[in-house]
Amino acid sequence: MNRTPILFLNVLVIAACGLVYELLAGTVASYVIGDSVTQFSLIIGLYLSALGVGAWLSRFLDRDLAARFVEVEIAVALIGGLSAPLLFFGFARLQWFQLFLFLVVFVIGVLVGLELPILMRILKEHLDFKELVSRVLSFDYLGSLFAAVLFPLFLVPRIGLVRTSILFGFLNGCVGLYGTWLLAPLIHRRLMALRIRAIIVMVLLVIAFLQAKTLTSLAEDELFADEIVYATSSPYQRIVVTRGKSGFHLFLNGNLQFASADEYRYHEALVHPALASVSAPAHVLILGGGDGLAMREVLKYPSVKDVTLVDLDRKMTSLSKAFPALAELNQHSFSDPRVHVVNEDAMIWLDRNPTRYDAAIVDFPDPNNFALGKLFTTRFYRLLRAHLTPNAAVSIQCTSPIFARRSYWCIIRTIEAAGFHVRPYQTTVPSFGVWGFALARLQPFEPPKRVVITGLRFLDEGTLASMFVMPLDAAPLPVEINRLDNQVLVRYYEDEWRKWS
Prior knowledge:
By secondary structure, the chain is an alpha/beta fold. It has 3 domains: 4-212, Growth Hormone, Chain: A; 222-257, Spermidine Synthase, Chain: A, domain 2 (Roll), CATH 2.30.140; 264-498, 3-Layer(aba) Sandwich (Rossmann fold), CATH 3.40.50.150. Helices cover 55% and strands 15% of the residues. It is built from 19 helices and 11 strands. Helix 1 (4-32) runs parallel beside helix 4 (83-93). The N and C termini lie far apart (58 Å).
């Protein structure tokens, strides 16, 4: 029997599994720790170096290579397959989690680094060196491409991090188990013991896969102080809602987005300074804000004829249907006939859409990665400027001027560099602390002096005036401008928030 073609298919599976374990570790780290750019960089560097260590160690394996290959596959199946739940539980229980994270990544990298050299030595009897290297590397890169495409588009949004981890561990187990038949003539001892070990690991992984929802719930229960009442994954993020004595909280990728007990402070401060600056705003644009809470405030203005909300994540804009308590909190704003929802990347949508608006509310998550950081660049704000009427006003959430002072002023200066006149302001939201915003217009202006609608819970004329007084500990700092080709804001943000994590 010619084993060569099937062994090359094993190379493809091995490469796909190895890349998935690396991506899983980076994703879990960014989910539970934040600091995604640094974490991904460290994990990629550590994983690649561990591959080299594994390849170097393979030189010490001289006898019974086929059996060694199967043993490595079984070990990768067990450790790699359970890596995601192990990391989630480790974060909740270990004070030295980062060391544990790097240890898991290193061990998996060493094991994956052992696989291909051993397999190449098994195959060398069937192919000349040039053909062997070209085929192995071709299948290796194809497997990596296969995993890189599937991971963000199908695996994580459809089956989640834990099931993805277990599924690819099972695939490694299949390679190991099938290897006991495929390479049987080359395995000189312990053949049945290898098969039994492979079967035991695969059965454990099947059980773990079937119980993945329980494992995920147990892991997330450790991460959040309150009871989880709703959780789902989208192609872009993990959405978790918890409920406690004070109400419910929404988390995206582990980061708090709002608490129902005090979100009105944030959203009134975000929306009303901009709309109070415009005489009878009719056409309003909301970028981000898929929870509908900023839209609730916009819809309080009788002059508003239409609201366009652009949010990338369809699961976020449909969360009100899946979680009725949110629909009550946003006063069923998505059901208002004046509302039009667009599920697209805001930057791409702005580049294609010609409509102009009387006011815009920009409510994106904080710029903790480059995908979000691009929405705080001069390029983005120039695109936004082209969609405003001459007297329009824009309000933008800008992170905390206390906890992330350089980040805050970087956003302010970037908005100014895009051609806006800006008035920085801030308020206190108990769940977040002091939070910062920007009010921007195309012409020089004074901050609004009165709230033009009634019935607000937080904002009145005195509060409105005080928000535009920046305290000394939030005063401007010298910063660089955040540009698309040099996102210094992400670096500022990670450096500053790391001190508080």
